[in-house]
Amino acid sequence: MRFSDLAFQNRFEYTHYMADVRRSWDKIADHYSRRYKISTDNVHYGPLCPGDDILGLIGNIKGKKVVDLGCGAGQNAIALARQGGIVTAVDFSEKQIGQARGLAKKNKVKIDFRVGDIGGLLSQRNNGFDLAVSACAISFVKNIDKAFASIFRILKRGGKFILSDMNPLQYIIDQTDDGVTFNSVYPYNPITINWDWEFDQLDKAPDFHHYVRSISSYFNSLTSNGFVVSKILEPKSTMKTPHIGFSKEIMEEYGYIARHIPITFIIVCGKP
């Protein structure tokens, strides 16, 4: 997927067809890791977004139990383990978990990697974690109420949940020679988008889908499930980011938009 493909009139289709996203992630896992370099030294929250070394949202986690939800190839899990966290990392793609285990071994950190769906977290025990982090994974979850209820359940009282994803604004505007134009209305109700992700090494681009939601819908779902939201951040786009590979691609394809709107949002909340 190139950022230039994020134009509704070109590639997105409003249909009832749902791709098998887990299988698609399995297909691209190796290629994704090679194309998009992500730091293992610093927790990232998404492309063109400052890392936690700048934002300082995580705090001291030495000896604390941490879960990385939608861990992908494990870069954030490794960064959290390097900070002294006792880390569990969950992803629904077996290939991604395989990548993560190899990367953790290379970086000489111990992490409990598990194949699982962050929409349910049935294997995680109640009140087990001090911190949950989920970076750019929640848009692949259909039922966020169920997901947030599960995350609330597995956090200890006083625990923190840091959620990030791509800002919905980028999905409703498109770059033109004269600036920007609107592709669609704001997602007052969730929008399902079907697309494919092209890699030169693959004969056929795997099909994906994700859900575009307003930031207020995340806020309302979190608070309805018991969380207390302390911060909502929409950091100014920057190339000083741990998520460097995807950031370069966005800047090359849609630099005007990236320089004028935040690409990533972050919500920090807690379990009282």
Q: In summary, what is this structure?
A:
With 272 residues, the chain is an alpha/beta fold. The chain has helices at residues 21-35, 52-55, 75-82, 94-106, 144-154, 215-224, 244-260; strands at residues 65-69, 86-91, 112-115, 129-135, 155-166, 173-176, 179-182, 191-196, 207-212, 228-233, 264-270.
Task: Explain the overall architecture.
The chain is of the alpha/beta class and 272 residues long. The chain is built from seven helices and eleven strands. The strands form three sheets. It has a seven-stranded mixed sheet, with helices on both faces. Strands 6-7 form a two-stranded antiparallel ribbon. Strand 6 and strand 7 form a beta hairpin. The protein is globular. The termini are far apart. The N terminus is likely disordered.
